[in-house]
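Hey L., structure's done. Input below.
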Amino acid sequence: MATLREIRQRISGVKSTQKITKAMKMVAAAKLRRATDAIIAARPYARKMQELLSYLSGQVDVTKYPQFEAREVKAVAIVIVTADRGLCGAFNSNIIKAAVNHIRTNYAEMHAAGKVKLICVGKKGYDFFSKRDYEVIAKHVGVFNQMSFTTAKTIVAEIVDGFIKGEYDKVEIISNEFKNAVQQKLTIGQFLPVVQQAGDTKNVSTDYIFEPASDEIVSALVPKHLNFQIWRVLLDSNAAEHGARMTAMENASTNARDLIKVLQLTYNKARQASITKELLEIVAGAEALKKAS
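Output:
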């Protein structure tokens, strides 16, 4: 059984840890509010841009745009978005497991042939895949320390360049989508080629006149759409990470509190046993003195 001193040291250690987890929860909560505001503000813009591009892609000939080119998939690139740091529950492990299972299920032969290329956004994903049998062609670490739209444009430029050069025929993104502070949704979606959808004219009662022409609008809209799609993914992942960290730190603080109660009870029992033992020794000594006299 542990001594009273050892139990006191454990209680002190757990209390110190609890202070850290509470502080980390407060920091994550503050960052979550800012991240939530950013993603909520970005979603309507992304949705309207998607709607406009979907409508226009049904009105013009998109074969002239390489981002729409659908070809036989002989090689694939997967963008895996994780966090740079841990202490956020299963946030990173869920993404990594999903990516591994997705490759194993859908691209096993391509992976064996070296035709699955990974683009890792976030240190945790890069650390995992770079040390295993996966081809990581690009990494972006420290993205979430200072969120910048320029970073999203850089990532998109790399992806599109490889796609146009024929290094891969399809690009997918695996990331966490923010739902609320305690819940994230793991998503796997196609990024390239851009999925062409027929223009939705069910609720359109007016024939729009585009100025400049539709072709020019699509030409300008496609790169903006791709840039903003990646930006939205980064914002979603950032908010989801802070939500997961806040929840994980809250759970850790609760567990620390419960552990302190258990240790305090153990300490009280051990202290009572020590006092009882000392009293018994005193009584036994007194009895021995009486008999000796």
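DSSP finds six helices and five strands in the chain. Confidence is low (pLDDT under 50) at residues 199-206.

-- N.
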